[in-house]
């Protein structure tokens, strides 16, 4: 078993493969055929992506092993990287280290939830010093985390859940966000991220959160909208989705209060610089 601050690259268990079969159509036969077909499609396209099995599975699992859909997702990623080249070109963990180590705005839980999904919390309130960390820097950090999450077969299959914590949000935070930033984040989540985003939970939203939501709402598509939940300070509502035993005391759970954060997780990112460099090579020929 990997340690608490490690990427879990272990092969899927029989139980996990059964989930993949039921939810993603994954069987040895379907997988082999889809990989072969996606390789052919990729070779005939104007896209430049690695075609080893591990890499192709990153795109085939979220698209339920339909090669044409996987290729479309790859194209979306290439378009997104092209559109936001100034922010994302050759982006390495060292470029976003301060967001993780000095500010601790993003934290990945060391455990999964009741459905085996990765849990992540993003602090958009009192922990966010808008004079030192920009909206762009937070996005670059989230994009870097995605590159690591897709390495985990369990996360590819079960997906991820994000908690946005707005505790202590003030007008300064609202002013630090933009329509462009909202569009970029939602385009990424909905079109250019090869992860199964299973739910987004908003907690501790103050009244002025309505101003923030007005930036995001126009870009939210129906599928994601059904997976977004607003809880305010009522953690019991969050527990309807994630039981107490899978949450830390910070969110009304029975697990210990979080005593770790981005500082502990950051060294993991640097262990995978080779893969991230490989990921950065993806795009158009």
Automatic annotation (TrEMBL):
- GO molecular-function terms, A-Z: phosphatidylinositol bisphosphate binding
Enumerate the Pfam families for this protein: CRAL_TRIO
The record ties this protein, via SMART domains, to: CRAL_TRIO_N, SEC14
Q: Which residues form the CRAL-TRIO domain?
A: 96-259
Q: Which SUPFAM superfamilies match?
A: CRAL/TRIO domain (SSF52087), CRAL/TRIO N-terminal domain (SSF46938)
**Entry GO terms, CC:** membrane
Concerning PANTHER family, the annotation shows: ALPHA-TOCOPHEROL TRANSFER PROTEIN-RELATED, MIP26555P1
- The entry's protein name is CRAL-TRIO domain-containing protein
């Amino acid at each position: 078993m990997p340690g608490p601050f490690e990427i879990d690259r272990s092969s899927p268990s029989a139980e996990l493969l059964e989930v993949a079969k039921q939810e993603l159509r994954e069987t040895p036969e379907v997988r082999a055929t889809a990989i072969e077909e996606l390789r052919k499609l990729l070779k005939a396209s104007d896209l430049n992506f690695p075609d080893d099995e591990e890499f192709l599975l990153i795109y085939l699992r979220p698209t339920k092993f339909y090669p044409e859909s996987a290729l479309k997702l790859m194209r979306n990623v290439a378009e997104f990287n092209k559109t936001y080249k100034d922010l994302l070109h050759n982006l390495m963990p060292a470029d976003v280290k301060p967001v993780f180590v000095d500010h601790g705005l993003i934290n990945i839980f060391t455990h999964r939830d009741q459905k085996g999904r990765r849990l992540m919390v993003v602090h958009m309130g009192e922990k966010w010093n808008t004079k030192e960390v920009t909206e762009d820097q937070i996005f670059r950090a989230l994009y870097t985390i995605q590159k690591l999450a897709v390495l985990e077969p369990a996360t590819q299959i079960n997906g991820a859940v994000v908690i946005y914590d707005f505790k202590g949000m003030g007008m300064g935070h609202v002013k630090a966000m933009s329509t462009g930033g909202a569009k970029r984040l939602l385009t990424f989540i909905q079109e250019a991220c090869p992860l199964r985003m299973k739910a987004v939970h908003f907690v501790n939203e103050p009244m002025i959160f309505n101003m923030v939501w007005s930036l995001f709402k126009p870009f939210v598509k129906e599928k994601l909208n059904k997976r977004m939940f607003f809880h305010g300070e009522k953690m019991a509502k969050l527990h309807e989705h994630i039981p107490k035993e899978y949450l830390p005391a910070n969110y009304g759970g029975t697990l210990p209060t979080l005593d770790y954060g981005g500082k502990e997780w950051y060294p993991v990112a640097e262990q995978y610089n080779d893969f991230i460099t490989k990921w950065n090579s993806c795009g158009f020929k």
